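Q&A log
Question type: sequence-to-structure
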Amino acid sequence: MKHLSIKMLACVAMMSLCCLGCKATPSTSSSSSESAPKVKTTKKAGAKSSQANQVVPDNPQLKVITVNSKKMGSDIKNLVVVPKAVADGDKEPRPVVYLLHGHGGGYLDWQNHTDLTKLADQYNMIFVCPDAKNAWYFDSPVDSKSQYETFVTQELREYVEANFPTINDPAHRAITGLSMGGHGALWLGWRHPEIYGSCGSMSGAVDIMTLKDRFDLDKCLGKYAQNAESWKSHSVMSLVPDLKNGQNIIIDDGAQDFLIKENRALHAALDKKGIKHQYSERPGKHAWTYWVTSLKQHLDYFSKCFK
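Response status: OK
Response body:
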């Protein structure tokens, strides 16, 4: 019994560390444009265990693309989801929404938890799901191999626009994400309004100053004690004073989420600055059951913005 209790405590301790996203099992295929792979299942418990094999290998609406990042010197896998009409050959350009995963997650996360093909058909949009590992979507000042702001905004975007029928203007381009990806979507959206006319955050880790040396942020920015100013300047909260109206912004969080105070503070800061945005709360924790519902809320919002 003593040994069993120790094992149970160890499991609880490990699960408590996994609160900023949901890990997906990556594909090992290396072709530049291919059918989406099967996703391995896992026996681990909790939010990270939901790895249902929902990525259908022979579904032409799902494309895993491998994009080379010259800045990082590496190949990055991403998932692109197109409406059935596009998969059948329709070349009419569609709006595009970039969906960012959370900490511990990957490019298959969104499709593994909701059927993006149905949403692509319903909203007549193209979805792009990058793989940013745990890099927070920054161009890291301390790691030359972690330059995901450049990758998402330039290298991946240019590949997608050259190979898929997207409407290539900010009025028809949006970016949103969950948790780490919520911070990333606002970081990229607010720093590049000329690219993203709309941006959003679901349960976003919107103030990284509250997460000192946790969730791999020190690997992206260096230890907080020696790099406090860099941490401050890389938090989306630091971008608010320079924001101007013109973008479409949607932010939401669950009332029971451990990040709710940070999201309320961001909402208050935007109000004080006079930045127009849609903010909402509803019952929910930091979990996929909340984010799947949030995604539809964001797509409804973006759909109106695209018109």
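Response note: DSSP finds ten helices and nine strands in the chain.
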